[in-house]
Amino acid sequence: MSRRGLRLAPPRWATATILILVGAVFSIPILAMVEFTLRDREEGHSLAHWGDLLAPANPAAYAPLWLGLTNSAILAVATVAIVLLLLAPTMILVQLRFPRLRRPFEFLCLLPISIPAIVLVVGLAPVYLVIGRTFGTGIWPLAFAYGITVLPYAYRSIQANLDAVDLGTLANAARSLGASWPRVVIDVLAPNLRVGLMLASLISIAVVLGEFTIASLLNRQNLQTALLVVSKIDPYVAVIMSLLSLGLVFVLLLVIDRIARRITAVRTEQA
Amino acid sequence: MTDETIATQEAAARLAALTGGNPLLADAGSGVEVRFDGVVKRYGGQTVLPGLDLTVRPGEFLALLGPSGCGKSTALRLLAGLEFADAGAIVVGGRDMSAVPTNRRDLGMVFQAYSLFPHMTVAKNTGYGLRMRKVPAATIADRVRAALELVGLDAFAERYPHQLSGGQQQRVALARALVTEPSVLLLDEPLSALDAKVRVQLRDEIRRIQLRLGITTIFVTHDQEEALAVADRIAVMHAGGIEQIGTPEELYSAPATAFVAEFIGRSSIVPAVVAGGRATVLGAEVALVTPVADGPGEVFLRPEQVRFVGADDGGVAATVVESSFLGSIRRTQVRTVDGVELVVQHPADERMQVGDRVAIAVHAASVAAR
Amino acid sequence: MTVIITNDGAIAPAAADAPRPSRPARRRGALPAIGLAPFGVYVLLFLAVPTGLAIGTGFLDGDGAFTLDNLAALAEPVIVQTFLNSFLLSAVTAVVGAVVGALVCWAVLGLREGGAIRGAIDSASSVLAQFGGVMLAFAFIATIGINGVVTLLLKDLGIDIFADGAWIYAFPGLFLPYIYFQVPLMVITFMPALTGLKPQWMEANATLGGSVPGFWLRIAAPVLAPSFLASLLLLFANAFSSYATAAALASQGAQIVPLQIRAALTSETVLGRENLAGALALGMIVIMAIVMGAYALVQRRAARWQS
Predict the structure, then answer these.
(1) Which member of A22, A82, A228 has the closest CB to residue C248?
(2) Segment (H or E) for B320
(3) C125-145: b or e for each residue (b if 16 or more CB lie within 10 Å)?
(4) Judgement on whether residues A123 and A17 belong to the same structural domain of the protein
(5) Which secondary structure element, helix H or strand E, spans residue B221, and what is its range?
C-alpha cells in the first residue's frame, strides 16, 4: 500500500503526464496559427504580415474586416442592451412576483440549447425578411436573434446572482422604509445584481463576437463572416485577427472567472 | 443426542432468548485492547501528535475529547490506517498494525457525514463489508437484517441514502460498521452534523448497542456533554497530548489541569490561598481534591459548588450581573466586591434581578485547584 | 401609520388608514402581468415563431400548400447518408472528447484547488469550448492544411498526409477540429461530477475491507456513470448542431446535416423541394429533442447523488 494514503486524486506523475500531453497537443493549432502569421513572403519568418495590419498595401481588401468588426461591436452592445433591459427586469419580476413561474421560465430560457442556431435560422429567414422591410438593412436588428442565442448563458449568470441575494427581503425592507418601486430597483436591487449582470454581459459579448451561423445564413456581415471573406483574399490577416480575437475572449473569460469566483465567495460568506 | 449437545443447545436457546434471536448479539465477544505507544504524527512543518501513549481496555467505550486541532481525529485516523504514523506503534489485540493496510485491519468506522454509498440501497450499503469478505449471499442477507434490526431500520432496507434523514443515515453507517463484527469500533464525531434532539437519541442508542456487543469503542467528539453522557472513560486531549484520562465523574469532580476544568462542565476561577492540602476561598476553608503547592493559587468552583446565603450568614458580598433561566434551575453570574466573577447554580424559583446585592459561600466537600 | 404585510409579501397600509386605497391594488394586480409582456412578445417573435416556421415549413411546398414531399426527401439516399455522417461525426467526437476530457478532469483533481494552474485550465477550457468555428477552421488549416505546419513537417520526414487527396476540406477533415472543442466542453461539464466524489467514500470502502481498484470499480464508476453519460449526450448534441467550423472548412459540399441545410437555404431551389430546409430542420429538432430529453433525465439522476 502506498505511503500516499487514500486519495481520490491521481499521483503527481499521472497528473503531470496527462496535462502536459493534452496541453501540448492542444497548443499545436494555436502555435501553428502564430507560426503561420510569422511566415515571410519568400522564405523564413518575419513580422511582415503583422505589419500589413497596420499599414496595408491594399486597404480596400480589408474593408470587409473593419465593417465586420464594427457590426459585431454594434451587435454586442445591442445584445447586452437586450440582456440588461429586457431579460434582467423580467427575471427580477419573476423572482419577486411570480415564483411559481420560475420552473417554466427556466425551461424557456434553457430551450435555445436544444434548438441550435442552424435550425433557428431556417425559421428566422422569413422573420428577417419582414424585419428588413420594416427596419431597413441595418445590422442591429440581428441582435434580437442573438438575444435568444445568449439566453441560456445570460439566464444562468443572472439567476445565480438572484439566488445568492434574497431580493424579496431587500425589496420588502426598502418598501417598508418608504421607497417607491423605481427607487427600490435603482437603489437596492440593481447594485446587488451588479455582479450577475456584468457576468451575463461579458458572456453575451463573447458569444456575439464568435457567432457565425445566423449572420452568415441571413446574409449579414459580422466579424466571423468577414474573417472568412478576408481569408480568401489574405489568409494571413485573417489568422492574425483570429488570434487577436482569441486573446480578447481569453481575457474576457479570465475576468468572468474572477467575477464568478467573487459570487461564490459572497455566497459562502452568507451561508 | 449426547448430554453435551443438549447442553450446548440449551445454552444457545438461553442466549437466543437474551438476544432476541439476533445473530450479531449472539456472537458478541469481549473486545480487544487497543494501544498507542509513543505515536508521533507530523503534517508538513507541524507536529500534531508529539508522542501519544494511550491504552483502551477491552470492551471499553473511550471518548477522545478535545477542541478542534487537538489531534483526536488524527489519532483515530492513525488507528484506522487512513494516515501513517511517523514514529511509534499502534497495537490492536496484541497485533502491531504498522504494516497492515486499512482494508485488513478488521475495524468498523463511522464518519461524520457522507460516508454511505449513494448508489446502493441501505441493505447493499450495510452488506458491503461482508461482500468484501466473500461471505456467502444467504449469510449476508441474515446478518444485514440483524444489523438493521439492531439500529431499528430493518423497514428501510430498500431505501436509498438520499431518502433518509441525517440521523437515519448515521444509523445505517453504524449498522454497516458493525455487521462485519469488527474487533474495534471507531466513531469520528458521528453526531456533530445532526440536530440536537437526534444527537441525544442517537448517542444513547450507540451506547446501548455497544454495551450489548461488548466491542471496544473509541469515540471522538468535541462536545463534552456527549462524552460525559456515554463514555466509560474520557481522554481529554489538548495540543496533541492527553491532559487527563479518567471516568466522567473523575474528570468532572477532580480536574487535573486548568484546561480540563474549563473544558469539562463550567468552572469559575477564584483566587485562593493554599495551605497544607486545604484552600481558603471566599472566606471559607475547603479540602483540595489533589494537593497543590502552598501559597496563593486559584480554585475551580463549579456552579453547584457555590450558593446564596443570607446576609448575616458570613458569605461574601456580591452583585448580580446576569441571570439565565434553564428550566429546572437558574444560573446567575455575580461579581464580588473584589471583582471576582462567579456563576451560581440555584433553584429556578429564586428569581434574581441584575444589580441585586447577594451573599455567596462555597458549598463543596472538596475542590480542584492550581 | 400602521402597516400590514399581505401574503404575497406586499406592504400595504392597514384598512384603518383611510385614503390611498386604489394605488396598491392596481399595482399589485395588473402591472406585474404586463411586466412579463415585453419578454413574452420577444420570445414569441424570435424563438417560438422561428422554431414553428422551421418545423412547419417542412410540410409546405413552394405555394404554401400542405405536402409530404419534403419529408419524403429525407428518405433519399443522399440525405440519409448525410444524417448518418452527422451521427458518426457526433458519436465519434463525443466519445473521444468524453474519454480524453474525463482523463483531464481526473488529472486536474491532483492540482491544488484555487491554485494558479487550475484556474488557468478552467479559463483555457472555457475559451476553447467557445472557440468560434471560423477561427478554429483557420487554426486547423494552419496546422494540417495543405501548407500547414504539421503537414510540412511530416513532408520533411517523407510522409505526405494528403497523398490521397485534400481530406481536410472534406468530411474526414471535420473530426480533428470537432474533438478540439469537444474535449474542453467535457472538462467544463464533467468536472463538477468528479469533484463531487467524496473522500469519505474512499475511506469507508477501505475500512470495510475494499481495495483501491475495487473502489473505482464498485463505487466511483457507478456514481460517476450518470454524469458521464449526461456529458456524453451533451457533447453529441453539441457536435450534431455545430455549423460554423464545417461551413468554414467545406466551402462547398454538404456532407453533414447542417451543411445540407445551408445548401437548401442558399442554392437554387429544386422544383417541388423548396422547403427542404424545413424538413431537415424538423429532422434535426427531433434528434436534438431526443438527445436533450435523455440528457435531462440522466442529469436528474446524477444530481441526486451529487448532493
Answers:
(1) A228
(2) strand B316-325
(3) bbbbbbbbbbbbbbbbbbbbb
(4) no
(5) strand B216-221
Residues from chain A that touch B82, judged by Cβ atoms under 8 A, are: 5-6
Chain C residue with minimum CA distance to B109: C207
Is some CB atom of chain A closer than 8 A to the CB atom of B102? yes
Sheet containing B241-246: which strands, arranged edge to edge? Answer: B107-110, B184-188, B216-221, B61-65, B233-238, B241-246
Distance of alpha carbon B110 from alpha carbon A200, whole angstroms: 44
A167 or C286: which carries more pLDDT confidence?
C286
Same domain, A264 and A158: yes
Same domain, A32 and A121: no
Is B99 within 8 Å of chain A by CB? no
* Rounded Cα–Cα distance for residues B318 and B311 (Å): 11
| Residue of chain C whose Cα is closest to the Cα of A177 | C11
Strands (E), chain C: 3-5, 11-13
Taking an 8 Å cut-off on Cβ atoms, the answer to whether B82 and A1 are in contact is: no
CA distance A248 to chain B (A): 41
Number of domains in chain C: 1
The structure's pTM equals 0.83
In a domain, residue A47? The reply is no
Confirm whether A44 is domain-assigned.
no
Query: Which one of C216, C243, C286, C295 makes the best mutation probe of the A interface by having the most chain A beta carbons within 10 Å?
Result: C243
Same-domain pairing of A84 and A210 = yes
Neighbours of B10 (CB within 10 A): 10
pLDDT (tens digit per residue) in A175-212: 898 888 888 878 888 888 888 888 889 889 888 988 99
ipTM score of complex: 0.83
B83 touches chain A (CB under 8 A): yes
Q: Are residues A70 and A122 in the same domain?
A: yes
Which residues in chain A have Cβ-Cβ distances shorter than 8 Å to B102? 1, 6
- Report the number of distinct structural domains present in chain A: 2
CA distance A8 to chain B (A): 13
B257-274 confidence digits (pLDDT tens)? 878 888 888 888 888 888
Low-confidence winner among A11-20, C137-146, C218-227 (lowest mean pLDDT):
C137-146
Residues A24, A95: one domain?
no
Name which of A27, A49, A107, A115 to mutate to probe chain C: the one with the most chain C Cβ atoms within 10 A of its Cβ.
A115
Task: Give B288's contacts (C-beta < 8 A, 6+ positions apart).
Answer: B274, B277, B278, B279, B366, B367, B368, B369
Neighbours of chain C (3+ CB pairs under 8 A): A, B
Contact A94 C262 (CB under 8 A): no
Interchain pair C208, B128: CB under 8 A: yes
Domain residue limits at A75 = 60-270
Residues A162, A33 within the same domain: no
What's the domain range around C280?
A: 73-306
pLDDT tens digits, one per residue of B6-59? 665 666 566 555 556 666 666 666 689 999 999 999 988 889 999 999 999 999
